[in-house]
C-alpha cells in the first residue's frame, strides 16, 4: 500500500491559492501521459463536432428550447421533451467531458518537468475557445437556430480543433527554435493549401445553412441562396484542395523531402479521396443524414490532416541534440 501524505493547513492554502502549481509540485507525468492527454483533448474536440451534427441531423436543435437551462422550469431534459430533448441535452453534457479532457491536458502540461509554458498556454487557449463556443451554442438556441450563428458555432469548433492539433504536435517536440525541413517554395505551396482548406470549410457552412437540414422540425430560417449552387462551388474548392495536395506530394518526391512531410501528405490525400466519395454520394442521394454526419467527420479529419502537413515542414528537436544546421536542411528545398 502506498501511503497518502497528509495535507497540512499550509498545503491546503497553497492548493487553494494555485491548484495547478500545487499538483505540479507533487506529480511529474511521463511524457507519454502528456501526449495522451493532448490527444484526448483533440479526439473530444472532434467528437463534440460530430455529436453536434447529430443534434442538427436528428432535428433536435431545439430539443432543449432555452439556455443555459433545458426548459424554463428544468435544468435537465424532461420526459415531455422526448427523444429530441435527450439528444440535445446529451450533447450539452458532452461539453463537460470535453472540458475534462482539456483540463487534463492543462494539468499534464503544467506538471511536466521542466515546465513548458508554451504548451500550458496552448491548453488554456483550448479551454477559452471551449467556453466561448459553449456560450455561442447557447446563443444558437436562443435565436432559434439562426443559420449564421450555426455556421459561426462550427467555425469556432474548427478553431478548437486547430489549437488542439498544434498542442498534440507540440507534446512530441522540444522547445528549441523550429528548423525548416523544406524550402520556401514548398512552404508557400502548403500555405496555399491551408488557405484553400479554410475557404472550403467556410463554404461548407454556407451549404449547411442553405440546405434542407435545418436542425429542427419547426420552421427554421435558412440562408437565402440556392444550396445546390453553393454545393457545386464547394465541390470545386474540394478539387482545388485535392489538386494542391497531389502537387505537394509530387514536389516533395521531386526534392527528396524527409519522410515526415511525405507521409502526412499521403495520409491527407487518402482522406480527401474518401471525403470526395462521401460528398458526391450525399449530393446524388439528396443528403441522407448518415452521409452528412460522415461528411462532417471527414471535414474534421481533413482539417487535422492539413495542419499536420503544415506542422511536418519543420522540426523542434530537444535541446542538446546534434542535428544538422539550418543551412544543410535548406538544401532540400532549394531543389523545388
Outline:
Helices cover 71% and strands 1% of the residues. It has 336 residues and is mainly α.
Q: For the CA atoms, what is the radius of gyration? A: 23 Å
Low-confidence stretches: 320-336
* Series of H and E elements: HHHHHHEHHHHEH
| N- to C-terminal distance | 61 Å
Strand order of the largest sheet: 1-2
Structural class: mainly alpha
The count of strands amounts to 2
- Beta-strand content bin: under 5%
Shape descriptor = flat
Largest sheet: 2 strands, antiparallel
What's the helix and strand layout?
Elements: H1 9-17, H2 19-26, H3 31-57, H4 82-111, H5 117-142, H6 147-170, E1 179-180, H7 184-210, H8 227-254, H9 259-284, H10 289-311, E2 314-315, H11 326-334
Antiparallel strand pairs: 1-2
Helix pairs in contact: 1-2, 2-4, 3-4, 3-6, 3-10, 4-5, 5-6, 6-7, 6-10, 7-8, 7-10, 8-9, 9-10
Key words describing this protein structure:
11 helices, flat, 2 strands, mainly alpha
Descriptive overview:
With 336 residues, this protein is an all-alpha fold. Helix content is 71%, strand content 1%. The chain has helices spanning 9-17, 19-26, 31-57, 82-111, 117-142, 147-170, 184-210, 227-254, 259-284, 289-311, 326-334; strands at residues 179-180, 314-315. It has a two-stranded antiparallel sheet. Helix 2 (19-26) packs across helix 4 (82-111), helix 4 packs antiparallel against helix 5 and helix 8 (227-254) runs antiparallel to helix 9 (259-284). The protein is flat and about 55 Å long. The N and C termini lie far apart (61 Å).
Amino acid at each position: 500500500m502506498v501511503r497518502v501524505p497528509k495535507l497540512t493547513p499550509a498545503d491546503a492554502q497553497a492548493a487553494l491559492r494555485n491548484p495547478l502549481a500545487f499538483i505540479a509540485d507533487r506529480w511529474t507525468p511521463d511524457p507519454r501521459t502528456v501526449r495522451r492527454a493532448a490527444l484526448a483533448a483533440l479526439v473530444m474536440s472532434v467528437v463534440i463536432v460530430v455529436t453536434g451534427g447529430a443534434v442538427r441531423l436528428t432535428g433536435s436543435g431545439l430539443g432543449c428550447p432555452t439556455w443555459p437551462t433545458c426548459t424554463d422550469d428544468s435544468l435537465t431534459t424532461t420526459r415531455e421533451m422526448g427523444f429530441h430533448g435527450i439528444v440535445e441535452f446529451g450533447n450539452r453534457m458532452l461539453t463537460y467531458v470535453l472540458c475534462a479532457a482539456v483540463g487534463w491536458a492543462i494539468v499534464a502540461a503544467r506538471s511536466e518537468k521542466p515546465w513548458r509554458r508554451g504548451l500550458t498556454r496552448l491548453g488554456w487557449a483550448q479551454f477559452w475557445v471551449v467556453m466561448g463556443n459553449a456560450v455561442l451554442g447557447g446563443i444558437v438556441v436562443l435565436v432559434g437556430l439562426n443559420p449564421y450563428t450555426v455556421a459561426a458555432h462550427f467555425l469556432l469548433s474548427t478553431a478548437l480543433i486547430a489549437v488542439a492539433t498544434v498542442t498534440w504536435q507540440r507534446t512530441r517536440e522540444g522547445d528549441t527554435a523550429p528548423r525548416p525541413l523544406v524550402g520556401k517554395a514548398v512552404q508557400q505551396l502548403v500555405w496555399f493549401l491551408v488557405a484553400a482548406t479554410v475557404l472550403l470549410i467556410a463554404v461548407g457552412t454556407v451549404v449547411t445553412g442553405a440546405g434542407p437540414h435545418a436542425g429542427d422540425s419547426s420552421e427554421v430560417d435558412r440562408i437565402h441562396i440556392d444550396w445546390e449552387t453553393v454545393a457545386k462551388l464547394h465541390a470545386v474548392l474540394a478539387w482545388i484542395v485535392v489538386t494542391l495536395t497531389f502537387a505537394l506530394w509530387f514536389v516533395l518526391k521531386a526534392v527528396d523531402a524527409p519522410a515526415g512531410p511525405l507521409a502526412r501528405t499521403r495520409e491527407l490525400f487518402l482522406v480527401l479521396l474518401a471525403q470526395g466519395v462521401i460528398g458526391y454520394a450525399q449530393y446524388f442521394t439528396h443528403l441522407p443524414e448518415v452521409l452528412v454526419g460522415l461528411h462532417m467527420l471527414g471535414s474534421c479529419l481533413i482539417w487535422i490532416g492539413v495542419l499536420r502537413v503544415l506542422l511536418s515542414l519543420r522540426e523542434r528537436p530537444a535541446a542538446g541534440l546534434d542535428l544538422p544546421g539550418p543551412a544543410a536542411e535548406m538544401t532540400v528545398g532549394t531543389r523545388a
